[in-house]
Design brief:
- The chain is mainly alpha-helical.
- It has one domain.
- It contains seven helices and three strands; from the N terminus they run ααβββααααα.
- Strand 2 and strand 3 form a beta hairpin.
- It is elongated and about 70 Å long.
- The two termini are about 30 Å apart.
- This is Zinc metallopeptidase.
- Keywords: Membrane, Transmembrane, Transmembrane helix.
Length: about 230
């Protein structure tokens, strides 16, 4: 029963975060920003003001699929944000430009996250193979290897947090300094960015909780093996 409750909690945390994001975004997607600028125009202005003339602003399909691609130097905005003139669209566009600015200034956590991508992918894909082998065969070495691989994926999640928070901070400074949002709209834009950050916080929290559970299982497994010997 306790395992059922545990996994139910792990499932609820990200679902709650996603619902919070969708609810907040939908609310402010219907509120026009005072400047009347589209998300694409907001992104272009911020990029140009920061000397990032080479970074392109592209339309991207999908709901809230907005992202910055450091490889081809593009800010990709979902259709509703690319064409929309809402506070939500302006906030999201500015956030992605925040990542472009981070890239320009070689922001430390962003560089570290890029370096961790191969290890995080390996950890996410392979960790459970070794964990399950170790669990069923009582091979603590295999189980520990799985934990180490998972820890790399968790580290990636944790490093992502300052990257996202910093991008949002840069976004708010840009949209207020450039007059993109005005007359108290900063509070509303902050709500959009804070809600979006919850998804990363939730993912990191779930990853850390699961890693701690596996470490506890390893400790018990290792203790039992030592007692048997």
């Amino acid at each position: 029963m306790s395992f059922l409750i545990y996994y139910l909690i792990l499932a609820i945390i990200p679902i709650w975060a996603q619902m919070k994001v969708k609810r907040t975004y939908s609310k402010y997607e219907r509120v026009y920003n005072a400047s009347g600028m589209t998300g694409a125009e907001v992104a272009r202005m911020i990029l140009d003001e920061n000397g990032l003339y080479h970074v392109k602003v592209l339309e991207h399909s999908g709901f809230l699929s907005d992202h910055y691609n450091p490889i081809d130097k593009t800010v990709n905005l979902s259709t509703s944000n690319y064409h929309g003139r809402s506070i939500a669209g302006a906030a999201v566009a500015a956030h992605e430009c925040g990542h472009a600015i981070q890239d320009k200034v070689s922001y430390g956590p962003l560089r570290l996250r890029h370096r961790l991508v191969p290890a995080a992918n390996l950890g996410s894909n392979a960790s459970w193979i070794f964990i399950l082998i170790g669990l069923f065969t009582h091979a603590t070495g295999m189980f520990l290897l799985g934990i180490i691989l998972m820890a790399l994926a968790v580290l990636f999640q944790l490093v992502t947090l300052p990257v996202e928070f910093n991008a949002s901070s840069r976004a708010l400074k840009q949209v207020t300094a450039l007059g993109i949002i005005r007359d108290g709209e900063e509070r509303e834009a902050r709500q959009v960015l804070s809600a979006a950050a919850l998804t990363y916080v939730a993912a990191a929290a779930v990853a850390v909780i699961e890693l701690l559970r596996l470490i506890l299982i390893f400790s018990n497994l290792n203790g039992n093996n030592n007692n048997n010997n």
